[in-house]
């Protein structure tokens, strides 16, 4: 993995993890075209400034496998349906990015040659080196793994400097801020503290994989205008999850 310290205040190669819910805006489900365009503009600005951008997108705005399993559906079936939802989101993002002039490739962990490329690590890296945004969909291609884990795996594979987890919350808190208004946000937290306190910002498999590969993660609020660009520039926003924090 490359040195995760931003060069001249900017990360060189980033993996941007977008939740499916983040694409909804104020809608009940689906993709808000204005949200997609806002994301695309920020990514295009980062690309123009010299950063390489890979995106992993979730599918929770369309279908969530774990929720379906809780209602009695076979978990593997639900997860595969969730993977297909990420492909739909990936295609929507590709359209938004190409409308603002960003060359983009959608790469899937499940073969569907008519609509996107298969994910091949060396090809993905080559696309990044040629200035293309890559959107990585269908998770890992396997059930029982979240898109957070897929994002961490892909970040390690492509040699990203950092994972930028864009959510609708402005970082990691010591309790759910919606239920506990007095909750405190961490500016930085270690992997083991995150796991030990079960803070839920990412699933345990993703955090463990990041820890084993010393992959830093920044959790930040994508609903604030310009925050994706700020995160790529290495500005201190949200919560940095990294090695152990000296107290």
Overview of this protein structure:
- With 247 residues, the chain is α/β, with parallel strands linked by helices.
- The chain has a single domain (13-242), classed as Acetylglutamate kinase-like (Carbamate kinase), CATH 3.40.1160.
- It has helices spanning 33-48, 65-70, 75-99, 121-129, 147-158, 191-196, 204-212, 227-232; strands at residues 13-18, 52-57, 104-108, 117-118, 133-137, 162-167, 172-173, 185-186, 188-190, 217-221, 239-242.
- The strands form two sheets. It has a nine-stranded mixed sheet with strand order 4-3-5-2-1-6-10-11-9, with helices on both faces. It has a two-stranded antiparallel sheet with strand order 7-8.
- Helix 1 (33-48) links the parallel strand 1 (13-18) and strand 2.
- The two termini are 27 Å apart.
- 45% of the residues are buried.
- The mean pLDDT is 89.
Topology:
Layout: E1 13-18, H1 33-48, E2 52-57, H2 65-70, H3 75-99, E3 104-108, E4 117-118, H4 121-129, E5 133-137, H5 147-158, E6 162-167, E7 172-173, E8 185-186, E9 188-190, H6 191-196, H7 204-212, E10 217-221, H8 227-232, E11 239-242
Parallel strand pairs: 1-2, 1-6, 2-5, 3-4, 3-5, 6-10, 9-11
Antiparallel strand pairs: 7-8, 10-11
Key structural traits:
Carbamate kinase; nine-stranded mixed sheet; 247 residues; 8 helices
What's a concise summary of this model?
This protein has one domain: 3-Layer(aba) Sandwich (Carbamate kinase), CATH 3.40.1160.
CATH topology label? Carbamate kinase
Mean pLDDT: 89
Helix/strand-derived category reads alpha/beta
Q: Detail the poorly predicted runs.
A: none
CATH C-level name: Alpha Beta
Quantity of strands, as a count: 11
